[in-house]
């Protein structure tokens, strides 16, 4: 439906015939009504067949359009939003005046000194009404799950993609500090301060997940793919950067630490809100980078070169990031800077000022090996699977990920042991020992679809070739591929 909506007080438009059918539809209502109809179709077709729905609401956002009227009474199958399918009125709220309804709780809301109260400006009434509408919509969807009998075993995750936004296509600007939507943090959308990137998530599955718990261990969106694969009892793609959150959700076992990394380039500055630390107000953004390990975050703004220093914060004790530890804890700085070099690879279409930086090696543990004159590839573990399910997946699977499932899909074998033809997937882990810093090319002879990671970065992505800059020393790798063929891993050094 991209491109169908123009802005407040205007209607759906497109050259497609659908435009007339969607005229007057509020997008949040439209998405919800269609989602309800689609879920009902899935359950009616096969109540035992799992389904997956990604529902990305576009409000509250820059348009800040108001609904056409109040939320319909009731919820679920018999009430709330409904998909009618009638031309010109595809949903039951496609009536009334577009961009007209302000929720009663906010229509006369005031702020300021009790003796000199002021009415909320229109833009904030719009924002609050949009948020309230999403709350109604999610409640409607949850009621539907109960009505069709799949509430207990359906996993619902509600979260946001970034901190509060200040875009407004209206004449009236909007500020994120009116509602203080950034919470106890500094920064908003497009910032790499905590207020720009840290968001909450609500997770619900009454028959699977014990309720009433709060987990403070950080995760990132790529963890959801690994989590969904784990809960579905299939191997996650080896190219996925995520780890399964199932142990945390199910309250059993332990999960691996998430890879937490952000890089973002954008013009503009952090707003100069009084609630923000002075060092953050009006901060030039430019190229930004963030990496987190444990409670410590390394962040740098307006990066010009690979050797620009990170600011280092203990965000558990200092959520506003006011006390930079980079000078007093150089060990933390160096650890975070090293990790930042190990989680990414350069891409020619998206140049960054630190692309020429080599991945830092592990701390030296074997001086003799590190001083070798030739590249050494040391395989320390080989995992194989004979599970035929893996051959049906459209991706190269990972075998070494921690799984909450009781059905492991691998067995350990000795390196070099003959592999029988019924092997469906393999995974090797080990170390690369390189004698000098430089650009290294990797060629996998004998296979065409593999995933090779060096440290946490994907170097070969569902192919057979890749390149990366490495510092001299030891670098862990993981190679995942299909079938019984044992490939040759060739590494060539370019100066």
Task: Give a short synopsis of this structure.
With 495 residues, the protein is α+β, with helices and mostly antiparallel strands. It has helices at residues 18-22, 27-45, 104-107, 122-147, 194-197, 222-231, 246-250, 330-342, 367-370; strands at 83-86, 89-91, 110-111, 118-119, 156-159, 201-204, 260-269, 284-293, 296-300, 311-314, 376-385, 411-413, 425-434, 438-445, 450-454, 457-463, 465-470, 473-482, 488-494. Helix content is 18%, strand content 23%.
Keywords summarizing the entry:
single chain; 495 residues; alpha+beta; Alkaline Phosphatase, subunit A; Arylsulfatase, C-terminal domain; Toxin - Anthrax Protective Antigen, domain 1; 3 domains; six-stranded antiparallel β-sheet; four-stranded antiparallel β-sheet; 19 strands; globular; disordered N terminus
Fold topology:
Blueprint: H1 18-22, H2 27-45, E1 83-86, E2 89-91, H3 104-107, E3 110-111, E4 118-119, H4 122-147, E5 156-159, H5 194-197, E6 201-204, H6 222-231, H7 246-250, E7 260-269, E8 284-293, E9 296-300, E10 311-314, H8 330-342, H9 367-370, E11 376-385, E12 411-413, E13 425-434, E14 438-445, E15 450-454, E16 457-463, E17 465-470, E18 473-482, E19 488-494
N→C terminal distance? 49 Å
Number of domains: 3
Beta-strand percentage? 15-25%
Highest CATH level, the class of the largest domain: Alpha Beta
**SSE class:** alpha+beta
Rounded to an integer, what's the Rg over CA atoms?
26 Å
SSE topology string: HHEEHEEHEHEHHEEEEHHEEEEEEEEE
By DSSP (H or I, 4+ residues per run), the number of helices equals: 9
- Principal-axis shape equals globular
User: Within the largest sheet, what's the order of strands?
Assistant: 12-11-13-18-15-16
């Amino acid at each position: 439906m991209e491109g169908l909506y123009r802005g407040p007080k205007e209607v759906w438009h497109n050259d497609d015939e659908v435009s007339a059918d969607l005229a007057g539809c509020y997008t949040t209502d439209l998405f919800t009504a269609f989602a309800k109809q689609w879920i009902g179709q899935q359950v009616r077709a096969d109540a035992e067949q799992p389904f997956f729905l990604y529902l990305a609401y576009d409000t509250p956002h820059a348009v800040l359009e108001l609904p056409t009227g109040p939320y319909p009474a009731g919820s679920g199958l018999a009430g709330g939003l409904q998909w009618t399918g009638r031309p010109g009125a595809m949903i039951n709220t496609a009536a009334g005046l577009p961009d007209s309804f302000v929720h009663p709780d906010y229509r006369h809301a005031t702020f300021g000194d009790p003796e000199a109260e002021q009415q909320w400006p229109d833009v904030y009434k719009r924002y609050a009404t949009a948020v309230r509408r999403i709350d109604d919509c999610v409640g409607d969807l949850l009621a539907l799950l109960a009505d069709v009998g799949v509430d207990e075993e359906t996993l619902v995750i509600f979260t946001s993609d970034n901190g509060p936004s200040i875009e407004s296509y209206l004449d009236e600007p909007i500020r994120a500090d009116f509602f203080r939507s950034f919470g106890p943090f500094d920064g908003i959308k497009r910032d790499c301060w905590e207020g720009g990137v840290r968001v909450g998530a609500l997770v619900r599955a009454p028959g699977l997940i014990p309720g009433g718990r709060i987990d403070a261990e950080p995760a990132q969106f790529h963890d959801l793919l690994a989590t969904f694969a784990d809960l579905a009892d299939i191997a996650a793609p080896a190219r996925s950067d995520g780890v399964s959150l199932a142990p945390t959700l199910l309250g059993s076992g332990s999960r691996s630490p998430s890879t937490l990394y952000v890089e973002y380039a954008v013009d503009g500055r952090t707003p100069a809100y009084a609630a923000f630390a002075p060092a953050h107000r009006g901060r030039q953004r430019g190229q930004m980078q963030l990496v987190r390990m444990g409670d410590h975050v390394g962040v740098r703004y307006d990066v010009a070169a690979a050797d620009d220093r990170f600011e280092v914060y203990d965000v558990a004790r200092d959520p506003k990031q006011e006390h930079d530890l980079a000078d007093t804890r150089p060990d933390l700085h160096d650890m975070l800077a090293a990790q930042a070099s190990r989680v990414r690879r350069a891409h020619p279409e998206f140049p960054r000022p630190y692309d020429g930086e080599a991945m830092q090696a592990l701390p030296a543990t074997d001086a003799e090996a590190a001083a070798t004159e030739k590249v050494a590839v040391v395989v320390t573990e080989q995992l194989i699977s004979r599970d035929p399910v893996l051959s049906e997946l459209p991706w190269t699977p990972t075998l070494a990920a921690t799984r909450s499932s009781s059905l492991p899909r691998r067995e350990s074998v000795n390196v070099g042991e003959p592999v029988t033809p019924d092997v469906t997937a393999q995974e090797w882990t080990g170390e690369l020992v390189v004698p000098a810093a430089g650009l290294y090319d990797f060629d996998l002879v004998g296979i065409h679809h593999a995933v090779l990671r060096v440290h946490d970065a994907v170097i070969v992505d569902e192919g057979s070739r890749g390149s990366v800059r490495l510092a001299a020393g030891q670098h862990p790798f993981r190679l995942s591929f299909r079938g019984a063929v044992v490939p040759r891993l060739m590494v060539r050094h370019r100066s």
